[in-house]
């Protein structure tokens, strides 16, 4: 079994440099490339227990997300795990089920286990729970200015959805979602509304109830807004692919052609598997860049001993429109 001395000899660097790399300290880029190549060739696995004793932290990173059973969060989890692995870290995936108390319990667990850091999409008030010296990166919602925040441009995403629907011929637009509409969902809707107001486009909203049978509310709304087989709206935007897909299939059940009569745009455009063809036209979040920037934010804190005296500005990443089968193709 290969050891650190073997890696040092094959990489042509000192044992101390290899040790620094394994323990998360800064090394020269050229040396890092040689060490990574040697580790891969030798199938060297660092001793995690020894590393924990030396650095007072493990090589585990906790990722806290609201749920795992959606394409977006599944893709995000995968991308974070792959990015962490490149730098010698392992991921602990924690599903909070959108319950603040569960998030708090995971933070406490992370402290007890002396993890290397936390990446969290948290909606609980955790700023008092994160101890000095523990690296943390927030996704979507700010914890405090002392931690990096990575967020997609949700406002511009709402604007882009309205612009695309109108550009493709829709003139009576509708925003749909499920209560409560807050945080990033509210920002997405605001972008949609502001664009419609600016361009004087007719627009309305429908929000289903916060219950397990909210799809029934969508069904009732569609029924109430049908005249013969004509639906009142010809363009629909939702803050979630999930709700947009529900609405799409309900329209098809009523014999309403999509996209010929009604065009639909969702939000996320995540893929369950890499080759998957996007069926629902959607606003795509840059999942790969979110993962890379989150891990970069953690590593920078690790290299600087995570002193929380720096004030971070949110890093807002651009979104894009992905053409699916629910919007018309633009005329060339």
TrEMBL record:
Q: Which GO terms describe its molecular function?
A: DNA-binding transcription factor activity; transcription cis-regulatory region binding
Keyword tags:
DNA-binding, Repressor, Transcription, Transcription regulation
**Domain HTH lacI-type stretches:** 2-55
Read off the InterPro entries from this record.
HTH_LacI (IPR000843), LacI/GalR-like_sensor (IPR046335), Lambda_DNA-bd_dom_sf (IPR010982), Peripla_BP_I (IPR028082)
The scientific name of the source species is Liquorilactobacillus capillatus DSM 19910
Q: What is this protein called?
A: Transcriptional regulator
Which Pfam families does the entry link to? LacI, Peripla_BP_3
